[in-house]
Design brief:
globular; 259 residues
């Protein structure tokens, strides 16, 4: 919020279109957070994060339909592997899946990915003015707070008096991943193709699986881990520009030793 106020003083207010897009992004991000937290309850923190990152595939197809960024052949070929990974990670196949309701967790995880995809696309379109990277995030955050308050009141699960320990962890989460993290995402989105930004965000599910196993003692079944590998591998195969990477390596090898 303070960064956004500084931008306003230096460069003037946000355009109205950017404010509207950021406000709508905040509505979708509210859905992302709500579905994601219930996904964690149903299928665990690690798998819940993996399912939420199906946004990489969704963003690719939305960018095709809306922005004309046609998905590559690799993306289309990887889609069956990603879907198979979702089925395996849900716990439908195999024994002793992690989570209280793995099948429900898959449904909620897909809903998380859809809402997250909408947030990323809207922030990308609303953040084209590179002088105001924090402004759209601040507007979206305000609408997240308002929508969360309304949803929590209607559903009846709003806790207005959390214990001090919970407040500390919430504050730490808000300062680090929510404020700094999403500010950095907002800065990168207008500068990169939508699908490339989604590739970079693949670090999140990979780390979440390991951290969930170490910090909260989650142990997915072997079948679920195979599903996780298919999801992450399929997404990476669909989006990492392998041909350009191979050409770059070949150019480095062909360069003279003294260069």
């Amino acid at each position: 919020m303070f960064v956004a106020l500084g931008e306003r003083r230096r460069h003037g207010p946000l355009p109205r279109d950017a404010i509207r897009l950021a406000a709508l992004a905040g509505v979708f991000f509210t859905g992302d957070l709500m579905f994601w937290h219930h996904t964690i309850e149903a299928v665990g923190a690690g798998l819940g994060t993996v399912l939420g990152n199906l946004q990489v595939i969704i963003v690719g197809f939305v960018a095709w339909l809306v922005l004309g960024e046609r998905p590559s052949r690799a993306t289309l070929l990887a889609l069956p592997f990603v879907l198979a990974g979702v089925v395996l990670s849900s716990g439908i196949v195999g024994e002793d899946p992690v989570g209280a309701a793995p099948q429900l967790g898959v449904v909620l995880g897909v809903a998380t990915a859809i809402c997250y995809s909408a947030y990323l696309m809207l922030i990308r379109r609303g953040g084209r003015d590179q002088r105001h990277p924090a402004g759209p995030v601040a507007v979206a955050t305000l609408f997240v707070a308002l929508c969360s308050l309304a949803a929590g009141t209607v559903i009846g699960d709003l806790d207005l008096t959390p214990p001090p320990a919970s407040l500390f962890w919430l504050a730490l989460l808000g300062i680090t991943s929510q404020s700094v993290g999403y500010l950095l995402i907002s800065i990168s989105l207008p500068r990169l193709p939508a699908i490339i930004t989604s590739i970079i965000l693949l670090v999140q599910p990979v780390m979440s699986i390991g951290l969930a196993m170490v910090l909260v003692g989650e142990t997915p079944s072997s079948t679920q881990l195979v599903g996780v590998a298919l999801v992450i591998g399929g997404i990476a195969g669909a989006t990492v520009p392998v041909a350009r990477l191979r050409d770059g390596i070949a150019r480095v090898r062909a360069a003279p030793a003294g260069d």
